[in-house]
Every structure is written in C-alpha cells, then in structure tokens.
Amino acid sequence: MESIKKYIAEAIGTFTLVTFGCGTAVAVGCDSASGSGYLLTALAFGLVIVAMAYSIGNVFGCHINPAVSLAMLLRKQLSGKDFVGYVIAQLVGSAVGCVVLGVVFGFDCGFGANQIQAGWEHGTAVSALLVEIILTFVFVLAIIGVTSKVENTAVSGLVIGLTLTLVHILGIALTGTSVNPARSLMPALFAGGTALAQVWIFIVGPLVGAALAAVVYTALDKSEA
After folding, report:
1. Which of 69, 64, 95 is nearest to 82 (CA)?
2. Is 119 exposed, middle or buried (0-12, 13-18, 19+ CB in 10 A)?
3. Element housing 153 (H / E)
4. pLDDT per residue over 13-69, tens digit each?
C-alpha cells in the first residue's frame, strides 16, 4: 500500500509539472525572442518543483523525473522495483497533464514539447544531446548534494526549484530544456512531427547526465570515501 501511495504521489507531481510548466510555455511562449514569456516558463518549471517538494515531498520524496530516479537507483537510494514503479507513474502523470493541456488549449497546441530550437544557429542532434547532458548533470548534481544532508531539509526544495529555473534560463533557447524524459516523451507523443522525431535526444541526454551526476558526486563526496 505504501508503494502505491509513492507512485500516486509521483504521478501527481509529474502531472503538475507538465500542466503548469508546459502549460505556461504554451500560454506565453517559451522561445528566447518572447522576452517575459521565456522567463515565465523558466520560473513556472522551477516553482512547480518548489511547490511539490514542500507538499508531496514531505510524504514520499519528490522525484517526478525518471532521470532523478535513475540517479537515486545508481546511488542505491531506490530499489529496482520502485524505480520501475516511479517511472511508470511519472509517465502516467505526464500523459494526464497532456490531456488537460489538450482540453484547455486544443490538441494542436504543441504541448510545450522539446525540440531543437529554430533560432539556434549551431543546433544539431549532437549539440542538443550535449546540452541536455550538461543541463541534467548540473540539475541532478544539485539534487543529490542538497538532499544528502539532513540539515538541508528545510531549504532543499527551494534549491532544487531554483536550479531547475537556472538550467531553463540557458536551455530554453537551445532545446526548450528537458532534463526530464517524462516531461518530454508524452508531450512529444501528443505533438508528433519534429518533436516526436527528436524525442530520443530528450530521453538519452537526461539519463546520461543524471548517471554522470550520480557517479561524480559519489566519487567526490568525502562521506562516501
């Protein structure tokens, strides 16, 4: 029963991330030429994490991201069974969020799906993959670091949310910023077209970046030496 509650919490968190994060991108525009829309989108994703960290995070943790779950699996802080359950729940939450966006904005709204941005002069599959690896590495490294010490509990949600905002501020103009396969896969499936053709970048990149963050933090952490 406790595992089911964990999975429900993960689904709710990912649903909220997609609904408010991707929804803001649809509502105000998330390309770098959109000015305030660019920053509002970055803030929306970050603030969702803050809200979820201090709500569902108080009960069962708050991954709402397969890349984060992978990092915790590699650090032996999550069982294989729960990893599978978390990822399924995250994808379900993301799909429900997309349905809500479709109802609210129309099923041709684009769903805030990630893709290589048209204004990025040097945007290629390789450069986009590198960007997603780096953005996710920084994001997940911050998560592992701030959650590794009990005394950080009071501020961890704020740190994680601000770090997600940070990586969005750079990444939106390049890839739209994924750092989260669940946030990318379902919107791409709903949007189709170029977003679906490129979605592998936003699955592979975040997973590689998260794995690197787990390995690097474990190697550097004095308490684990």
Report:
1. 69
2. exposed
3. helix 153-171
4. 999 999 999 999 999 986 556 567 889 999 999 999 999 999 988 777 789 999 999
DSSP conformational letter for 22:
I
Look-up: residue for tokens 């939450």? 93
Q: Show Cβ contacts of residue 143 under 8 Å, excluding neighbours closer than 6 positions.
A: 68, 71, 160, 163
What's the rounded Cα separation, in Å, for the pair 144 and 128? 24
Cα distances from 140 to residues 2, 59, 163, 209, in angstroms, run 25, 21, 9, 8
Q: Looking at the whole model, is its pTM more than 0.85?
A: yes
205, amino acid identity: G
- Position 3: which residue type? S
CA distances from 68 to 90, 193, 213 (A): 11, 27, 10
Contacts for 153 with CB less than 8 Å, ≥ 6 apart: none
3-state secondary structure of 67: helix
Candidates 153, 152, 157, 137; CA nearest to 63 is: 157
- Our measurement of the distance from residue 217's CA atom to the centroid of its chain's CA atoms, rounded to an integer in Å, reads 19
* 137 residue type, one letter: F
Q: Which amino acid is at 57?
A: G
Q: If you ran DSSP here, which 8-state letter would residue 17 be given?
A: I
Residue 166: Cβ within 10 Å count = 16
